[in-house]
Design brief:
Chain A: It holds the Pfam family DmsC. The complex is a heterodimer of chains A (about 300) and B (about 240). By secondary structure, chain A is mainly α. Helices cover about 70% and strands about 0% of the residues of chain A. Classes of the chains: A mainly alpha (about 300), B alpha+beta (about 240).
Chain lengths: ~300, ~240
């Protein structure tokens, strides 16, 4: 599948943004993170900024972005529509929580409820994003039990690493948050390795035989219907990154998992401001690594239409 | 609404005979010619005379070499929308632009509602949908909905353009939901198959596999030439000399 940068950035940014929003909503709303104007402003600004930037980025993928409002209508059947509805609906409790927690410094009552609802909205939206991909049968690497949990784990992972960087920067770093970020990073690493292992061993039932209805023997494409690449091959037959898959997987592992895990681990032995600097570096490295991961998620996915072209 | 109809009154579709298709591309050009002025017009071509040709087509004919123990053969394979009974391309559509008609089962796009998110093309395992980069919307086969009900055409022309154009009658159009229809009978008698049945999309269009290999051609050679009658003169003398 063609990795359109708008979609790669969209899923990575909203994943991190919703992860951070959910954590702030729950931990801030319940008072585990004491209200602080600048911390709150930067934290909520970062979370909602990542979400808004991601959503805006996704509309550049559209052929007719001016009609994007129509995408809120088919939530009964379409995961993409559900994602649209859920993402916009989440802004309401998120906004209320932000006002109460950041500007009024409240941590209970309606602020806690708004925070919890924002967290529920965030998790729901990430689920709908994951289901868009997990529901697509023609792409075996996506239509797997690894896809939805992957989106949730990576959202929690990038969100917690961002939260850790935020708290460390404001000199209120909590050991529990750092430990959670470290554990989620290791969990994400394990999940990605398991996903790759599963995908590499995939035996896909759909073959050139079932695609053409020609039973038995071999079916070899001898002539395409067209001389140049068409939409189908440009969109679904993307092959460039497959050549570099091994290197890109290594880069993903180093940037998204290994380096952040190492930096988070050494935080326990370091004083401020080193903890703050390393935490921010860990968050930036992980975000860059997740962009590579998401690029590979698309580039390594093989659509059944490529079978018609002998690919 | 992108929810699928629970029942369609008819299941209009095509039956494509892989035994008789000669890969002449007549259906491809007839489709392009009709539809670039039809329901989903235009079927945009980008740089049509340049080195980087691209464009929207509803029907594409591939050629395959099918090799089995019985031998090998070339199979020409027209590929277009199968108007599935459970098309995920419709249910994934976030705007309601894609829909399946309850009356005849045809899968269509309302261009005015399409936002060009391309998700339907990802959801189609058969590559039936092509994005028009110029107009910014998705396009697909309409089963020539603007021909088959068109009172302005003679009755025999109220079939999809690809069917009308096929010189070997490899394409048939009809109601596959009616077991008594000619197309249903043809599918039953020739063992018509679904493409990618394991996907569970339940395609309406059926493909008739090539007939089995036979030895008929090799066992019925042309008759030998009969010996000529003996003649007199010079040729008769040559004949007698060579016959000894």
């Amino acid at each position: 599948m063609h990795p359109a940068f708008s979609v790669v950035f969209f899923t990575t940014a909203t994943g991190a943004g919703y992860g951070l929003l959910a954590l702030l909503g729950v931990l801030g709303g319940l008072g585990f993170i004491s209200p602080d104007f600048w911390l709150g402003l930067v934290g909520m600004g970062l979370a909602l900024g990542l979400i808004a930037a991601g959503l805006l980025s996704s509309t550049t993928h559209l052929g007719r972005p001016e009609r994007a409002w129509r995408a809120f209508s088919q939530w009964r059947s379409s995961w993409l529509s559900r994602e649209g509805v859920s993402s916009v609906a989440t802004f309401i409790p998120a906004g209320l929580f932000g006002i109460g927690w950041v500007f009024f410094g409240r941590t209970s009552g309606w602020v806690a409820i708004a925070g919890a609802l924002a967290a529920i909205g965030a998790v729901t939206t990430v689920c709908t994003t994951g289901m868009i991909y997990a529901s697509l049968k023609p792409i075996a690497q996506w239509h797997s039990r690894y896809t939805l949990p992957g989106y949730l784990i990576f959202s929690a992972m990038t969100g917690s690493v961002l939260l850790n960087a935020l708290l460390q920067a404001f000199v209120i770093g909590a050991t529990a948050i750092t430990a959670a970020a470290l554990l989620l990073t290791l969990l994400g690493w394990g999940w990605k390795l398991a996903t790759w292992r599963y995908n590499d061993a995939l035996e896909i039932a759909t073959t050139a035989n079932t695609a053409t209805g020609l039973a038995g023997g071999t079916v070899r494409s001898v002539e395409w219907p067209h001389t140049e690449e068409n939409y189908l091959l440009k969109e679904m037959g993307f092959r460039i990154a497959r050549k570099h898959a091994a290197k890109l997987r290594l880069i993903t592992q180093l940037l998204a998992f290994a380096l952040p895990a190492l930096l988070l681990a050494v935080l326990f032995a370091l004083p401020w401001p080193f903890t703050a600097i390393l935490s921010v570096v860990a968050a930036i490295a992980q975000f860059a690594g997740m962009l590579v991961e998401r690029w590979l998620f698309f580039a390594e996915a093989k659509h059944t239409v490529t079978l018609y072209y002998g690919r | 609404m992108t929810c699928l109809p629970a029942h369609t009154d008819k299941k209009l579709g095509l039956v494509i005979d892989l035994d008789t298709c000669v890969g002449c591309q007549a259906c491809v050009t007839a489709c392009k010619e009709w539809n670039t002025g039809g329901h989903m017009a235009p079927l945009t071509d980008i740089d049509p005379y340049g080195g980087d040709v691209d464009g929207v087509w509803f029907n594409r004919v591939h050629s395959y070499e099918h090799t089995t123990e019985a031998g090998g053969r070339t199979v020409n394979f027209p590929r277009s929308c199968l108007h599935c009974e459970t098309p995920a391309c419709v249910t994934v559509c976030p705007t309601g632009a894609s829909y399946k008609r309850a009356s005849d089962g045809i899968v269509l796009i309302d261009e005015s509602k399409c936002i060009g998110c391309k998700l339907c093309s990802w959801a189609c395992p058969y590559g039936a949908r092509e994005f028009d980069t110029d107009v910014g919307v998705m396009k697909k086969c309409t089963l020539c909905v603007d021909r088959i009900y068109n009172d302005n055409l003679a009755e025999e022309d109220r079939v999809p353009a690809c069917v009308a154009a096929c010189p070997t009658s490899a394409r048939h159009f009809g109601d596959l939901g009616d077991p008594a229809s000619a197309v249903s009978q043809l599918v039953a008698s020739r063992g018509g198959v679904d493409l990618m049945p394991e996907m569970g999309y339940k395609p309406t269009n059926k493909y008739l596999p090539p007939r089995a290999h036979t030895e008929r051609a090799a066992s019925v050679p042309a008759p030998r030439l009969e010996p000529v009658k003996a003649e007199g003169g010079f040729l008769g003398w040559v004949d007698r000399m060579l016959s000894n």
